[in-house]
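batch_manifest entry 22 of 60
target: Nickel import system permease protein NikB
source organism: Paenibacillus konkukensis
requested by: lab member K.T.
priority: normal
notes from requester: please return tokens only, no post-processing; we will run our own comparison against the previous entry in this batch. if the run fails, retry once and flag.
--- input ---
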Amino acid sequence: MAWFIVKRVLGIIPILFGVSLITFLIVRLLPVDPAEAYLRLSKIPVTDEAVQLVREELGLNQPLYVQYVHWLSGAVKLDFGSSYISKKPVWDEMLHYLPATLQLTFSSIVLAFVISLPIGILSALYKDRWVDHVSRTLSFIGAAAPSFCLGFLFIYIFSLKLGYFPVSGRGSLLHLILPSLTLALASVAVYTRMLRGSTLNELHQPYVLYARARGLREKWVIGKHVLRNAITPLVTTMGMHIGHKLSGSIIVENVFAWPGIGRHFVNALFGRDYPVILCYVLLVTTIIVICNLLIDIFHAMIDPRVRRNGGQ
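--- output ---
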């Protein structure tokens, strides 16, 4: 088990290195000069002399590989420079906005799981009946509807018309419900279909027939045996969807004015705040990779075959 974890951890290093290199090159090769963007955001007239001074101050006059090594050495120490807009350390700003995004992301995943679990099981138990048809129809609608459309629709109905929830911002639990539901609905379709398929597959396994033959109650067979095995693929998918939620939260955070790193990232994009852009991409990538690592470890703990094959 220890060697399995070590191999997975070591495999993270080249992934993060590759992402950081590609992102750095893309940002540096954009047509907008970072020095000019810095001057405009600082409301300083863009002149040749000012651009030259800023380029020397930011190290942009050095070769590209020297700039990357300098930036990477700082990133390893969690020093991503200062924001062009706020002039504050980028990492401190990310730590300020990150809790809001993580709260929204994980609450949406939990909400999607809570909604999908009964729907997926009922669809499998009542296959091809009206419950199954209704759940599949709702799943398709949830998967097809864009997040920003659902967000504006929820705001119009539940905030403006009914007045049940706040329109925007972050504060109480009421502020969290609509953004979480908007972000969760896209995953409900996937989770429901996956749980339905895995439950149907488990219902045809021999151990279910044996359990029923022994006279066990149907609720015990479903809850104790079938659900335990059917839910394993769903856990894997939920872990892999964390990255999808983090990226999808960009839209939801802007619709609901949720003060997370997604909204902060959009502001950085419009303002050409390159240090924030680089830090955001690397931070989100790291979170995704770590979540996938935890899912691999979880599988290795419950399934020795994964641990044995991964150790080869």
